[in-house]
Amino acid sequence: MLTPEQVNYVPLNPARGDRSPKAGVLWGDIRSDESSGVLLRFADGFSSPPHIHNITYRAVVISGELHNDDPGAEKFWMGPGSFWTQPAGENHITAARPGGGATAFLEILSGPYLVQPAAEAFDNGEQPVNVASSNLVWMGADEFSRIEKRSDNTGAEVALLWGDFSGESLNGSFLRLSAGYSGSLSTTSGMLRSVVVQGDLAHSVPNATRTSVIGPGGFFESASGLDHTVSCQSDVACIIYLRTRGEFRIR
User: What does the mean pLDDT of the chain come to?
Assistant: First the structure.
């Protein structure tokens, strides 16, 4: 478990000085041939030159507003809770809306994560996806059987983003907990990795000496079979990005 204050940030591209995005690794190693999760902080008004990556990644906006698209595309500003995918080899730019910085969570499928010239662009057969938070489709207990139904039929909702729940397949989802909601989150067959996107989430596990409050950009993970007690301590709903193998359940 990491609170946002415990994440260590370093320049992603030291040659750009203060204009370089700053990277805070949550798991894995972005410079090795493995999956990893990283937070990127962008300076006010940051705009990258056209470029490609050697790998595909998925991303979630944590704060501020970000644009990620073809170099000639009209700006499409994505706010907190928005989701995008960036295929390997596709020419694009990334920009933070002027007037404030921005933070995003990047899930790198397999490193190393490299920034390469646009002239080396290639088509890997994937298509990019940009989903504004307002376009997410949320499901409650009536539509999503892995949420335990409450008598008032409120509390937890899920928006599916990628993958499926068959066997131990990888998948990614948003979990939204209403203000004041308390419950238990667990997986049935594989690991759980969770990044807080919105709100202040009180978190504890069995035999823990204390409950920790994790804000946006905080992180917790476990193997299967561990119950995470979570409670939304904010006046607004708490949103968590979940990456799991197989099914997860909310009770």
Answer: 93
